[in-house]
Specification:
With 309 residues, the protein is α+β, with helices and mostly antiparallel strands. The protein has one domain: 2-Layer Sandwich (lpxc deacetylase, domain 1), CATH 3.30.1700. The longest helix has 14 residues, at 231-244. The strands form six sheets. It has a five-stranded mixed β-sheet, with helices on one face. Strands 12-13-20-14-15 form a five-stranded mixed β-sheet, covered by helices on one side. The protein is built from seven helices and 21 strands. Bound molecules: zinc ion.
């Protein structure tokens, strides 16, 4: 069955790009509504923005969605990953600014609140998008592809010259709460030289060691160190789940990302929908429902550091 969140929940924080305070409220929605963002700070304009692959403005550092009136919302990928990873199919996300709050740079805050509120079942079956033909996109040394599989798997490789990151590879089946247990607390990361460059250009004004891992060569600058030895690649998998959830229905297939980013994963979705017969819409039976991300998530799966009171 499709689901929504049982009751509204708000998140206050700062925007990574502006550094300004921003508040987001996740609200329940009816069956077949899907996921929509709404700019609560604007009026006299269409403030609803669809969380869909064809609403994405290509950007490298985050995922920005916009509507036909040019109204946009940035940094949607972590809340999208949380919704997909907790198995929420319908919701509206009110935001009173141009970007989502960054929280601690992971999806743990969103996940923890969603799991604490609980899910409401709706009277409509889940439809999934099954990948039936391989599709691949490349750019420079990066590539991303989708292959047929029996559940959503994410396989990601990153390769950075910095010793503190290096080459990391991880593959995970998203069934049975794996996202919540293994990925949701992984924080975004950057290199000190990039952070300095962004700052010099007036970007990432809200970025700090409170909401990102920062590395310099072989050193992790955050006083508490890493949450997982391979936290960076886990975060890339989190981003990939969020970006893939913009397909509009849960995907059944294996995603492989090699040095891929938000823009490349979005290009992959464009390529999937441009190729006739690459996907098939299926109504989920009980067996397939058990293999969806978000099925079987328990409160005990939420990482302790993020558990809501
Ligand atoms: Zn991210």
């Amino acid at each position: 069955m499709q689901t929504t969140i049982k009751s509204p929940v708000s998140f206050a924080g700062i925007g990574l790009h502006t550094g300004h305070p921003v508040r987001a409220t996740l609200r329940p929605a009816a069956a077949e509504y899907g996921i929509w963002f709404r700019r609560a700070d604007l009026s006299d304009v269409d403030t609803l923005i669809a969380a869909r692959w064809d609403s994405v403005d290509p950007m490298d550092r985050c995922t920005r969605l916009s509507n036909a009136s040019g109204v946009s919302v940035s940094t949607v990928e972590h809340v999208m990953a949380a919704l997909a990873g907790c198995g929420i199919h319908n919701a509206i996300v009110d935001v009173d600014g141009p970007e989502l709050p960054v929280l601690d740079g992971s999806a743990a805050g969103f996940v923890s609140a969603i799991v604490a509120r609980g899910l409401r079942k709706l009277d409509a079956p889940v439809r999934v998008l099954r990948i039936v033909k391989p599709v691949e996109v490349r750019e420079g040394e990066g590539w991303a592809r989708l292959d047929p599989a029996d559940s959503l798997e994410i396989d990601f490789t990153i390769d950075f010259p910095d010793e503190a990151i290096g080459r990391q590879q991880k593959r995970l089946d998203m069934a049975n709460g794996a996202f919540v247990r293994e990925l949701c607390a992984a924080r975004t990361f950057g290199r000190l030289s990039d952070v300095e460059m962004l700052r010099a250009n007036g970007l990432a004004r809200g970025g700090s060691l409170d909401n990102a891992i920062v590395v310099d060569g072989g050193r992790v600058l955050n006083p508490g160190g890493l949450r997982h030895e391979d936290e960076p690649v886990r975060h890339k998998m989190l981003d990939a789940l969020g970006d893939l959830s913009l397909a509009g229905a849960p995907l059944i297939g294996r995603y492989t990302g090699h040095r891929a980013g938000h823009a490349l994963t979005n290009r992959l979705l464009h390529a999937v929908f441009a190729q006739p017969g690459a996907t098939r819409m299926e109504t989920c039976d009980a067996d397939m429902a058990r293999r969806l991300p978000g099925m079987g998530v328990r409160r005990a799966d939420v990482p302790v550091l993020a558990r809501a009171a």
